[in-house]
């Protein structure tokens, strides 16, 4: 039985070898043709390793020049910015410590996360993008990371309702790991505590 | 000269400094679209034209400002050239938000 199977496999291999060789030859020919039509200059246009980095550098400078000093330091050190929410449904939400009743964490190219300032309870995530569809950017649609953060910051601080209306709202956990967001809130609290220590001692 | 566009709601209060129109672009960072003194008619016309062009392309426009009460920096959306606040140094155009 085993001998019969081996014989069949051998026959199949012998019969299939010409087909395999022909396909491999075609693939090689196609690859050669692609290489000959695309010159070295075309390859250079396809990939400029410094371009995205330079764009991100400019975007960081623009972000720095627009946001508050504390927000810039937050982004530089933690990789996200907290933006205060402007609405309060109840009077009790407005009073007290002066802290906003809720706030947002703004990540680059990730959903905006709303949370309760006092308790750190996660409320929802808002999936929002700023795609450039004008076609002037050589097929690229995504802004540099810091531009994406600045766009969210400008939209939230100027017209919170409009950007939230346009976003797709989900419970936290659809795109972002809730454990990671909670860890970021803890990192933020620690970061603020460390920043405030020297000020208090002065 | 100044205020030539007032009748169309396009004129803005004039500051002392020229104003820059910047646009966020994928793969570039910000790009300078136009710069000019709104008190000079020709330059203001160019600024108005550029402003309209960007809005026609679906951009949102915002001006970084400082809140007079809290002293905190924030942004102000502008939907027309005439909405640009006095003394603004730059207007930043960026693609409008859409659900991700």
Task: Write a short abstract of this structure.
The complex is a heterodimer of chains A (202) and B (100). Chain A is α+β, with helices and mostly antiparallel strands.
Please state the second-level CATH architecture of chain B: Beta Barrel
Low-confidence stretches of chain A: none
Q: What portion of the residues of chain A fall into strands of 2 or more residues?
A: 5-15%
Tell me the Rg of chain A in angstroms: 27 Å
Under the CATH scheme, which class of chain B?
Answer: Mainly Beta
**Shape label of chain B:** globular
| Helix fraction bin of chain B | 10-25%
**Radius of gyration of chain B over alpha carbons?**
14 Å
Biggest sheet statistics of chain B: 5 strands, mixed
The CATH topology of chain B: Ribosomal Protein L25, Chain P
Number of domains of chain A: 2
Strand percentage of chain B, roughly? 35-45%
| Assembly category | heterodimer
Strand pairing plus helix content of chain B: what structural class?
A: alpha+beta
Number of domains of chain B: 1
Strands of the biggest beta sheet of chain A: in what spatial order?
1-2-3-4-5
State the strand order across the main sheet of chain B.
Answer: 2-1-5-3-4
Mean pLDDT of chain A comes to 85
Q: What is the count of β-strands of chain A? A: 5
